[in-house]
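Data availability (excerpt). The following record was deposited with the supplementary files.
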Amino acid sequence: FGWIVANCTLDTWSQGKTVTLTADLDLTDSDLTSIPTFGGTFDGGGHTISGLSYTKDGSTEGFFRYIQEGAVVRNLRVEGILSPTGTGKNIGGIAGSNSGAISSCTFAGTIEGETNVGGIAGINEASGSIYNSAVSGTITGTHSTGGVAGRNLGQVMGCTNSAEINTGDYEEKGSSQSLNVNLDTDLKQLTND
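Predicted structure:
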């Protein structure tokens, strides 16, 4: 599996290629964390990739960091923990950023990030589609956090989320009293003008 990760650092290497899993894969004791960019067809064959763990500094992280436009990822189950330090932007269980098609995929585990945090994709780009996929576990983020996609600009259809989303005390603190004071001041200013 390491050869796929190494070769997918070039965005053109995987285009037109098909990768099919023939067995479950456990990454628990592996240094492998994610496929940098993928442009072909990745068929999980209904198998599970377990033990995915990413806790280093980073953004745009998932089993695939980037799924390119025209790429297809299907029939894959991923289990693990994604909790990068740093900006934590575009964090998803299957893809950090999806511009292709994700179909019949499942993520189970824990995802923590800051912005664009989702169970399948951190950000589903305008050309991206996510179909018939499911999420379970816990997802935590500050801005644009969702069960299937943290931020969706494309299509999401037939998906199921049973993950807990921001169930802890993660909201930014503010008071409605200060909001009312500002609104009252602004209204007075408008009527005096």
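Summary of structural features: DSSP finds two helices and 21 strands in the chain.
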